[in-house]
């Protein structure tokens, strides 16, 4: 098929696809067969070619990896969170890939979380799970469930050793350390305990990988005796299960992209029938949180950016308003504590937190000093508390954990993630970096926010290299985040920019609505407008601009390089959704039917079919001069299949053979890539080395 120094050439096997009178010949559809030896041979040939083409970067890759390792406090300990009589936390140990889950008993008079020196184990520590022990003998390891029972006796945990996100659920007796005979294969994310810890609820998926069943398991009984509590027949909907913070109710969350229904079971009566809080109505989304005598309802019924209401927990019925809808202020979540509510919201492109003390109509927002930042609630397992844990970061401020006193309104910094000296021996100083907010103007006149970070003194004359990142789907917001690996780019003079394009949720629900379905192309044209603006405003120049995105952001990468191949010096597409039309046309594939409310249904609607065909990257490869493209994927990914980037690269080579295209497939990983932290750092070093190499050409 190839030698390591020549580009692989995929064989062509014409396969016809006909929909709505349109016949398309797909010559690389054979790559969808994972069991075909030719498929594996092709992926291995691509890996060999990529390795050969990037051998000259081995030194830089090692340098970047070591910089990340040098700057990271490898032996570390999270700020313990209190639940009942214990502090729970995670430790990492230098030289070990995975975290160690621990707890320690709360001591008399102890109110503040115990903090160790340099991440050392706490005195009196109890190890609940050691990921390094569990991962022994496996190339991949992922922890799904980690759920301690209300009485602190049992631990429900689940493991995945292939990356396909199908977990085996087990129960550990924390009093004896024994793992019980209870073993349930093929589970998904999400568990919930009954009040007396005799029953564990969990979720499984159907053949299309849709979470569709909630089960009830009695501890100490065979999995074959488990009972289905809810089975969702509508293929647009998926299910989840959780225990409320109050530990009074088990919630079964049933939702599609645009419609919700929640059913509740009293945690004290786990064999009871689930009761519907409010029947599903097409287009109405709501979530439920328990608070005393009421259920809190966060909903969009006549409220585009959501409102907060409540109803009786004993007999759910009419919703009484608590926070009215305010256009432009998107309410995203509500967390209930015994005497306070905390609402997570978004306004003017920034996240925020609003506190509502019980028994009063007063509310207030917590203030933060930086102009660009990200804030949200962290782990807060206790219901009866006057202190909540917050997580805060910005493009220049490392991840920070605060405790906020809901009574005194005092904000106490518990820990800021350490950043150790870089290769030059200098201590990290946020003042060495600066962040900016700029705005591009899209073709239709819409202003698109861009967040940027650079080292102080980086020139603004167009000479600086720049990485522009984007996502723009599912109302997911790319809020500012701190990255140790990014420092290696910034210190080499690179500007990092995040384009907050439509399809995301940065500016509220309308921002999302204007970048989905038959308005999806706004996502792509917004990103191109941001790229053009960065050049026009002298942040960078076209030949020094590399775009990066993953998953749906990988679709973005494929679409924009077709729209504007001249706008970029390089494209990094990670687990990219680049064969979107073929995937969304196949309802047997994982997640397809549930995705129709995001992209449209091209099977039933010829307009959607034509629209998707006009932007899907694989369908629109043209004989033009493309910039260099690096596609990274994983063989066991169940969200975006490996064959999407494999087919895309094969077609690029055939249609535009003068381009520089690389495909790297992780042969034992899933959607998130390598599972161990060192392996993840190596992957990031590989991508960043390739990116820096673009700037030298």
UniProtKB/TrEMBL annotation:
Keywords annotated in UniProt: Hydrolase, Protease, Serine protease
Every Peptidase S9A N-terminal domain range: 8-414
GO molecular function, one term: serine-type endopeptidase activity
Single Gene Ontology BP annotation: proteolysis
Pfam families from the UniProt entry: Peptidase_S9, Peptidase_S9_N
Domain (Peptidase S9 prolyl oligopeptidase catalytic): residue spans on this chain: 481-695
The family this protein is said to belong to: Belongs to the peptidase S9A family.
Protein's UniProt name: Protease 2
Organism: Micromonospora rosaria
Upper classification of the organism: Bacteria, Bacillati, Actinomycetota, Actinomycetes, Micromonosporales
């Amino acid at each position: 098929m190839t030698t390591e120094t020549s580009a692989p050439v995929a064989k062509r096997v014409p396969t016809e696809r006909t929909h709505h009178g349109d016949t398309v010949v797909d010559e690389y559809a054979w790559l969808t067969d994972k069991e075909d030896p030719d498929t594996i041979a092709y992926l291995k040939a691509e890996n060999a070619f990529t390795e050969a083409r990037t051998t000259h970067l081995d030194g830089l890759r090692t340098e970047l990896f070591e910089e990340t390792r040098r700057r990271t406090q490898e032996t570390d300990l999270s700020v313990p969170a209190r639940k009942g009589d214990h502090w729970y936390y995670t430790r990492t140990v230098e030289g070990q890939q995975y975290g160690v889950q621990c707890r320690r008993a709360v001591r008399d008079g102890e109110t503040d979380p115990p903090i160790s020196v340099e991440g050392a184990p706490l005195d009196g520590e109890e190890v609940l799970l050691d990921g390094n022990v569990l991962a022994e003998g496996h190339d991949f390891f992922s922890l799904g469930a980690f759920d301690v029972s209300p009485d602190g006796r049992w631990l429900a945990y689940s493991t995945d050793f292939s990356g396909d996100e199908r977990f085996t659920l087990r129960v550990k007796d924390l009093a004896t350390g024994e793992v019980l005979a209870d073993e349930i294969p093929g589970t998904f994310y999400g568990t919930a305990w009954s009040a007396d810890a005799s029953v564990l609820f969990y979720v499984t998926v159907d053949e299309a990988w849709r979470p569709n069943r909630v089960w009830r398991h009695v501890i100490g009984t065979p999995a074959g005796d488990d009972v289905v509590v809810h089975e969702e027949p509508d293929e647009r909907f998926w299910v989840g299960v959780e225990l409320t913070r109050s530990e009074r109710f088990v919630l079964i969350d049933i939702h599609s992209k645009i419609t919700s229904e929640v059913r509740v079971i009293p945690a004290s009566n786990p064999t009871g029938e689930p009761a519907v809080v409010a029947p599903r109505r097409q287009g109405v989304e709501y979530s439920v949180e328990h608070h005393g005598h009421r259920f809190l309802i966060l909903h969009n019924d006549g409220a585009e950016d959501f409102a907060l209401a409540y109803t009786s927990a004993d007999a759910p019925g009419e919703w009484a308003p608590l926070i009215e809808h305010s256009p432009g202020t998107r309410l995203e979540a509500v967390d209930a504590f015994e005497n306070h509510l905390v609402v997570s919201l978004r306004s003017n492109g920034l996240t925020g937190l609003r506190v509502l003390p019980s028994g009063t109509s007063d509310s207030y927002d917590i203030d933060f000093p930086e102009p660009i930042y990200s804030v949200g609630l962290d782990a807060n397992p206790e219901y009866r508390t006057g202190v909540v844990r917050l997580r805060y970061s910005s493009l220049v401020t490392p991840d920070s954990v605060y405790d906020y006193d809901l009574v005194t309104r005092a904000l106490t910094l518990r820990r800021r993630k350490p950043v150790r000296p870089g290769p030059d021996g200098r201590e990290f100083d946020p003042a060495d970096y600066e962040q900016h907010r700029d705005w591009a103007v899209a073709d239709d006149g819409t202003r698109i926010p861009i967040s940027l970070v650079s080292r102080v003194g980086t020139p603004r004359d167009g000479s600086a290299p720049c990485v522009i990142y984007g996502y723009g789907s599912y109302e997911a917001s790319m809020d500012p985040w701190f990255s140790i690996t990014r420092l290696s780019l910034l210190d080499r003079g690179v500007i990092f920019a995040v384009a907050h394009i439509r399809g995301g949720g940065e500016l509220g629900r309308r921002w999302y609505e204007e970048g989905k379905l038959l308005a999806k192309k706004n996502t792509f044209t917004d990103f191109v407008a941001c790229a053009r603006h960065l050049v026009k405003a002298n942040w960078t120049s076209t030949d020094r601009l590399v775009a990066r995105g993953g998953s749906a952001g990988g679709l973005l990468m494929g679409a924009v390089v077709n729209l504007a191949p001249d706008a970029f010096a390089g494209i990094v597409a990670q687990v990219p959704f680049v064969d979107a039309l073929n995937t969304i046309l196949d309802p047997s594939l994982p997640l397809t039917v549930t995705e129709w409310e995001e992209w449209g249904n091209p099977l039933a609607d010829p307009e959607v079919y034509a629209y998707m065909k006009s932007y899907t990257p694989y369908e629109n490869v043209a004989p033009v001069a493309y910039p260099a493209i690096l596609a990274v994927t994983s063989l066991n990914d169940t969200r975006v299949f490996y064959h999407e980037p494999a087919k895309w690269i094969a077609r690029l080579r055939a249609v535009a053979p003068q381009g520089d295209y690389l495909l790297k497939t992780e042969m034992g990983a899933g959607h998130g890539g390598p599972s161990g932290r060192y392996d993840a750092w190596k992957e990031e070093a590989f991508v960043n080395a390739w990116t820096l190499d673009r700037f030298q050409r």
